[in-house]
């Protein structure tokens, strides 16, 4: 079977935070094709980059012949996972959750193979079984296997209990049992023997393993992935301007591309291991040579292209590259109207105007200069460009041929400060 040493590969890629019965799990996946699952609660209408790691890890298992199951938490999202949250989630309604479930399911379908003959991926919704459950039966048959003492001592719960301003409701406290029951049902009906998730899910995964062992007397496994934290202490995927979503309408492909392009140098090779399918030996060699011939710049470029293509496809990657080339390499001839429309959305700052007196006024309106005097000095000092063309006339006024597609003008100060003027 073509899946030997998969656990060892995951370790080489720094993909394992916790793992249970490692030797038994390795032996199991070396000799059998298993089913594994990861859960995603639809608490928004899109996944974000923080969800990529478990999705790509499911893909790694599928490529080795194992069957990945994605569990959408249509029921558990109504409760809310308290794991390491500072305060209780805002509860959402069924109809909103159903809409979000459909959108997220479509996003997930791009990452896994749902059509292969032997081990096609499956998407399930835990609402299917929780809708039919009887509360008394659940408390009697499932709840009796859990000690409140143990649940209270879980780190995620202890942190909330210590907060006098927040605490934890019984609603969120019960989440641990619900996710454990998910694992139990999937093991019973789909023979799932492994659950994966972020390291903040360790308590929930352990609870599921405990429940299966108590009721079914079966050996199952848990594996958690590292939570990625940036040097500023913020979770990976969060920026000053907000979350980096997978939905192109919430985070444009250009902005998504730039997110990866601008990651810290210290993360480049770890991210190549975590997110790509490049061989680990090749990544190690690249890292050794990272300061030779701009290798680290090339590798960061490879990562941004790879991730944008993975999430948004070839066409959107090309658009993101065109926009980048225009803004940073000054190749205005390749611009398309759709690129400028994308830029207007959230690529760079933009303003809408009917008319502008002159270039000095435009610089002030675009917040590229604080005053007309400063704007004049910038023009004279050769730091201002219109559509990548340098302007040195301090009294310059806009011409119709400077309106791209009769609607857009790209105004730049230096190499990194831009504003898109949209002419109404």
UniProtKB/TrEMBL annotation:
Enzyme Commission number(s): 6.1.1.1
Record bears the keyword Nucleotide-binding: yes
Classification via SUPFAM superfamilies: Alpha-L RNA-binding motif, Nucleotidylyl transferase
Short motif 'KMSKS' region, span: 235-239
Positions annotated to bind L-tyrosine: 37, 175, 179
Positions with a binding annotation for ATP: 238
Annotated InterPro entries: aa-tRNA-synth_Ic, Rossmann-like_a/b/a_fold, S4_RNA-bd_sf, SYY-like_C, Tyr-tRNA-ligase, Tyr-tRNA-ligase_bac-type, Tyr-tRNA-ligase_bac_1
Gene Ontology annotations for the cellular component aspect, listed alphabetically: cytosol
Catalytic activity of the protein: tRNA(Tyr) + L-tyrosine + ATP = L-tyrosyl-tRNA(Tyr) + AMP + diphosphate + H(+)
Ranges of residues in domain Tyrosine--tRNA ligase SYY-like C-terminal: 339-421
Example GO biological process: tyrosyl-tRNA aminoacylation
Enzyme class: ligase
NCBIfam families on file: tyrS
Oligomeric form and interacting partners: Homodimer.
HAMAP family: Tyr_tRNA_synth_type1 (MF_02006)
Protein function: Catalyzes the attachment of tyrosine to tRNA(Tyr) in a two-step reaction: tyrosine is first activated by ATP to form Tyr-AMP and then transferred to the acceptor end of tRNA(Tyr).
Name used for this protein in its record: Tyrosine--tRNA ligase
Gene name of the record: tyrS
């Amino acid at each position: 079977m073509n899946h030997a040493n998969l656990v060892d590969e995951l370790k080489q890629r720094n993909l394992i935070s916790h793992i249970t019965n490692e030797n038994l799990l390795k032996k199991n996946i070396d000799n059998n094709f298993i089913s594994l699952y990861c859960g995603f609660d639809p608490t928004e209408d899109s996944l974000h980059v923080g969800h990529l790691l478990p999705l790509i890890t499911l893909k790694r298992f599928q490529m080795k012949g194992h069957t990945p199951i994605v569990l959408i938490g249509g029921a558990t999202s109504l409760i809310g996972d308290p794991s390491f949250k500072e305060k209780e989630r805002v509860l959402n309604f069924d109809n909103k959750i159903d809409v979000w479930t459909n959108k997220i399911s479509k996003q997930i379908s791009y990452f896994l193979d749902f059509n292969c003959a032997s081990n096609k991926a499956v998407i399930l919704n835990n609402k299917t079984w929780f809708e039919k459950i009887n509360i008394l039966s659940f408390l009697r048959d499932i709840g009796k296997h859990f000690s409140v003492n143990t649940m209270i001592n879980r780190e995620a719960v202890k942190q909330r209990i210590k907060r006098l301003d927040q605490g934890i409701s019984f609603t969120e406290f019960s989440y641990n049992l619900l996710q454990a029951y998910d694992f139990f049902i999937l093991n019973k009906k789909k023979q799932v023997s492994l659950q994966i998730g972020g390291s903040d899910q360790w308590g929930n995964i352990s609870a599921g393993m405990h429940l299966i062992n108590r009721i079914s007397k079966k050996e199952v496994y848990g594996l958690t992935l590292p939570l990625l934290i940036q040097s500023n202490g913020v979770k990976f995927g969060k920026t000053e301007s907000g979350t980096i979503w997978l939905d192109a309408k919430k985070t444009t492909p250009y902005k998504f591309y730039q997110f990866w392009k601008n990651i810290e140098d210290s993360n480049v090779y770890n991210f190549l291991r975590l997110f790509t399918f490049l061989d680990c030996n090749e990544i190690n060699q690249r890292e050794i040579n990272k300061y030779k011939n701009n290798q680290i710049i090339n590798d960061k470029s490879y990562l941004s292209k790879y991730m944008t293509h993975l999430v948004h496809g070839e066409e959107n990657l090309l658009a993101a590259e065109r926009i980048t080339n225009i803004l940073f390499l000054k190749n205005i001839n390749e611009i398309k109207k759709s690129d400028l429309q994308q830029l207007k959305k959230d690529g760079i700052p933009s303003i809408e105007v009917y008319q502008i007196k002159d270039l000095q006024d435009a610089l002030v309106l675009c917040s590229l200069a604080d005053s007309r005097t400063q704007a004049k000095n910038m023009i004279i000092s050769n730091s201002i460009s219109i559509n990548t063309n340098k302007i040195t006339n301090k009294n310059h006024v806009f011409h119709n041929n400077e309106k791209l597609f009769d609607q857009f003008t790209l105004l730049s100060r230096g190499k990194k400060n831009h504003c898109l003027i949209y002419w109404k």
